[in-house]
Amino acid sequence: MRLCITGTPGTGKTTVAKILSEKLRLPIYNLSDIVKEKKLYKSFDEGRDAFIVDIEKLREFFKDKHRFIAEGLVAHYIPCDVLVVLRAKPDVIRERLKERNYTTEKVEENVEAERIAYCATEAFENFSGKVFIHIDTSNRTPEKIVNVIIEGVKRGGIVEEIDWLEG
Ligand code: ADP
Protein backbone atom coordinates (compact mmCIF):
# COMPACT_ATOMS: atom_id res chain seq x y z
CA MET A 1 0.00 0.00 0.00
CA ARG A 2 1.17 3.51 -0.84
CA LEU A 3 -0.30 5.83 1.77
CA CYS A 4 0.34 9.56 1.83
CA ILE A 5 -0.50 11.94 4.66
CA THR A 6 -0.77 15.62 3.96
CA GLY A 7 -2.10 18.63 5.85
CA THR A 8 -1.18 22.02 7.25
CA PRO A 9 1.83 21.97 9.62
CA GLY A 10 0.59 21.10 13.10
CA THR A 11 -2.26 18.83 12.02
CA GLY A 12 -0.38 15.81 13.37
CA LYS A 13 1.04 14.18 10.24
CA THR A 14 4.30 13.01 11.82
CA THR A 15 2.62 11.78 15.00
CA VAL A 16 -0.08 9.85 13.14
CA ALA A 17 2.32 8.46 10.51
CA LYS A 18 4.55 6.93 13.20
CA ILE A 19 1.71 5.02 14.86
CA LEU A 20 0.24 4.02 11.51
CA SER A 21 3.58 2.72 10.21
CA GLU A 22 3.90 0.46 13.27
CA LYS A 23 0.34 -0.82 12.93
CA LEU A 24 0.53 -1.43 9.18
CA ARG A 25 4.21 -2.38 9.18
CA LEU A 26 5.02 0.05 6.41
CA PRO A 27 8.25 2.03 6.07
CA ILE A 28 7.81 5.72 6.73
CA TYR A 29 9.21 8.69 4.81
CA ASN A 30 9.22 12.13 6.37
CA LEU A 31 9.19 14.37 3.32
CA SER A 32 11.09 17.30 4.79
CA ASP A 33 13.92 14.90 5.63
CA ILE A 34 13.84 13.12 2.26
CA VAL A 35 13.70 16.36 0.30
CA LYS A 36 16.84 17.59 2.09
CA GLU A 37 18.69 14.26 2.10
CA LYS A 38 18.03 13.41 -1.55
CA LYS A 39 18.13 17.03 -2.74
CA LEU A 40 14.62 16.89 -4.18
CA TYR A 41 14.37 20.67 -4.25
CA LYS A 42 14.71 23.46 -6.76
CA SER A 43 16.00 26.11 -4.40
CA PHE A 44 15.92 27.42 -0.86
CA ASP A 45 13.56 30.23 0.01
CA GLU A 46 15.44 32.34 2.59
CA GLY A 47 12.36 34.42 3.39
CA ARG A 48 10.30 31.37 4.27
CA ASP A 49 13.24 29.39 5.57
CA ALA A 50 12.06 26.45 3.47
CA PHE A 51 13.09 24.39 0.47
CA ILE A 52 11.08 24.76 -2.74
CA VAL A 53 10.34 21.13 -3.54
CA ASP A 54 10.95 19.85 -7.05
CA ILE A 55 7.73 17.88 -7.55
CA GLU A 56 9.11 15.96 -10.54
CA LYS A 57 12.12 14.77 -8.54
CA LEU A 58 9.85 13.90 -5.63
CA ARG A 59 7.62 11.77 -7.87
CA GLU A 60 10.69 10.17 -9.42
CA PHE A 61 12.00 9.18 -5.99
CA PHE A 62 8.78 7.33 -5.15
CA LYS A 63 8.18 5.88 -8.62
CA ASP A 64 9.45 2.38 -7.88
CA LYS A 65 8.27 2.22 -4.27
CA HIS A 66 5.06 0.35 -3.63
CA ARG A 67 4.88 -0.01 0.15
CA PHE A 68 5.26 3.17 2.13
CA ILE A 69 3.78 5.89 4.24
CA ALA A 70 4.92 9.34 3.15
CA GLU A 71 4.04 12.30 5.32
CA GLY A 72 4.52 15.98 4.69
CA LEU A 73 3.15 19.17 3.27
CA VAL A 74 3.72 17.98 -0.31
CA ALA A 75 2.62 14.34 0.17
CA HIS A 76 -0.43 14.84 -2.07
CA TYR A 77 1.87 15.24 -5.10
CA ILE A 78 3.09 11.64 -4.78
CA PRO A 79 1.04 9.03 -6.66
CA CYS A 80 -0.57 6.85 -3.98
CA ASP A 81 -3.41 4.46 -3.22
CA VAL A 82 -4.60 6.17 -0.07
CA LEU A 83 -4.41 9.90 0.49
CA VAL A 84 -5.06 11.13 4.01
CA VAL A 85 -5.69 14.83 4.60
CA LEU A 86 -5.52 15.80 8.24
CA ARG A 87 -7.38 18.92 9.31
CA ALA A 88 -7.49 20.77 12.63
CA LYS A 89 -9.28 23.85 13.93
CA PRO A 90 -7.22 26.99 13.18
CA ASP A 91 -6.99 27.76 16.92
CA VAL A 92 -5.61 24.28 17.55
CA ILE A 93 -3.02 24.80 14.79
CA ARG A 94 -2.01 28.12 16.36
CA GLU A 95 -1.48 26.57 19.79
CA ARG A 96 0.52 23.67 18.37
CA LEU A 97 2.72 25.85 16.16
CA LYS A 98 3.44 28.34 18.95
CA GLU A 99 5.38 25.50 20.55
CA ARG A 100 7.76 25.50 17.60
CA ASN A 101 10.37 28.15 17.01
CA TYR A 102 8.28 29.63 14.20
CA THR A 103 7.92 33.39 13.84
CA THR A 104 4.44 34.79 14.60
CA GLU A 105 4.17 35.52 10.88
CA LYS A 106 4.84 31.90 9.98
CA VAL A 107 2.39 30.66 12.62
CA GLU A 108 -0.35 32.97 11.32
CA GLU A 109 0.38 32.11 7.70
CA ASN A 110 -0.26 28.45 8.49
CA VAL A 111 -3.34 29.22 10.60
CA GLU A 112 -4.76 31.13 7.64
CA ALA A 113 -3.82 28.34 5.21
CA GLU A 114 -5.79 25.87 7.36
CA ARG A 115 -8.71 28.28 7.71
CA ILE A 116 -9.13 28.50 3.94
CA ALA A 117 -8.40 24.77 3.42
CA TYR A 118 -5.42 25.53 1.19
CA CYS A 119 -3.72 22.14 1.46
CA ALA A 120 -6.96 20.13 1.49
CA THR A 121 -8.16 21.83 -1.70
CA GLU A 122 -4.85 21.18 -3.47
CA ALA A 123 -4.92 17.56 -2.29
CA PHE A 124 -8.49 17.04 -3.44
CA GLU A 125 -7.79 18.58 -6.85
CA ASN A 126 -4.63 16.51 -7.41
CA PHE A 127 -5.93 13.19 -6.16
CA SER A 128 -6.10 10.34 -8.66
CA GLY A 129 -5.81 7.33 -6.35
CA LYS A 130 -8.49 5.06 -4.90
CA VAL A 131 -9.07 6.05 -1.30
CA PHE A 132 -9.45 9.62 -0.08
CA ILE A 133 -9.61 10.30 3.65
CA HIS A 134 -10.33 13.80 4.94
CA ILE A 135 -10.74 14.05 8.69
CA ASP A 136 -10.85 16.52 11.57
CA THR A 137 -8.19 15.72 14.16
CA SER A 138 -9.08 18.55 16.59
CA ASN A 139 -10.87 16.44 19.22
CA ARG A 140 -9.27 13.09 18.59
CA THR A 141 -6.21 11.44 20.06
CA PRO A 142 -3.50 10.26 17.62
CA GLU A 143 -4.51 6.63 18.34
CA LYS A 144 -8.15 7.40 17.56
CA ILE A 145 -7.13 9.12 14.31
CA VAL A 146 -5.13 6.06 13.28
CA ASN A 147 -8.19 3.86 13.91
CA VAL A 148 -10.37 6.20 11.87
CA ILE A 149 -7.84 6.05 9.01
CA ILE A 150 -7.72 2.24 9.08
CA GLU A 151 -11.52 2.13 9.11
CA GLY A 152 -11.52 4.61 6.20
CA VAL A 153 -9.20 2.40 4.18
CA LYS A 154 -11.52 -0.58 4.76
CA ARG A 155 -14.55 1.44 3.76
CA GLY A 156 -12.91 2.85 0.63
CA GLY A 157 -12.74 6.41 1.95
CA ILE A 158 -14.08 8.92 4.46
CA VAL A 159 -14.72 12.53 3.63
CA GLU A 160 -15.76 14.56 6.67
CA GLU A 161 -17.30 17.92 5.91
CA ILE A 162 -14.98 20.54 7.35
CA ASP A 163 -15.41 24.25 6.77
CA TRP A 164 -13.61 26.58 9.19
CA LEU A 165 -15.02 29.60 7.40
CA GLU A 166 -18.53 28.74 8.55
CA GLY A 167 -19.83 29.84 11.94
P1 ADP B 1 2.78 17.87 11.64
O1 ADP B 1 3.68 16.72 11.31
O2 ADP B 1 1.50 17.84 10.85
O3 ADP B 1 3.42 19.21 11.58
P2 ADP B 1 3.04 16.90 14.36
O4 ADP B 1 2.77 15.44 14.27
O5 ADP B 1 4.44 17.35 14.44
O6 ADP B 1 2.30 17.67 13.16
O7 ADP B 1 2.20 17.44 15.59
C1 ADP B 1 2.27 18.80 16.00
C2 ADP B 1 2.10 18.87 17.52
O8 ADP B 1 0.78 18.50 17.88
C3 ADP B 1 3.03 17.93 18.28
O9 ADP B 1 3.41 18.57 19.46
C4 ADP B 1 2.15 16.74 18.58
O10 ADP B 1 2.54 16.08 19.76
C5 ADP B 1 0.78 17.37 18.73
N1 ADP B 1 -0.31 16.50 18.26
C6 ADP B 1 -0.35 15.83 17.11
N2 ADP B 1 -1.51 15.17 16.97
C7 ADP B 1 -2.24 15.45 18.06
C8 ADP B 1 -3.56 15.07 18.53
N3 ADP B 1 -4.35 14.28 17.82
N4 ADP B 1 -3.99 15.57 19.70
C9 ADP B 1 -3.20 16.37 20.42
N5 ADP B 1 -1.95 16.77 20.07
C10 ADP B 1 -1.48 16.32 18.91
TrEMBL record:
A Gene Ontology BP annotation from the UniProt entry: rRNA processing
UniProt keyword terms in alphabetical order: ATP-binding, Kinase, Nucleotide-binding, Ribosome biogenesis, rRNA processing, Transferase
The organism's place on the tree of life at top rank: Bacteria
GO MF annotation terms: AMP kinase activity; ATP binding; ATP hydrolysis activity
Name of a matching Pfam family: AAA_18
Alphabetical list of InterPro entries matching this protein: Adenyl_kinase_AK6, CbxX/CfxQ, P-loop_NTPase
The protein's name: Adenylate kinase
Species this protein is from: Desulfurobacterium atlanticum
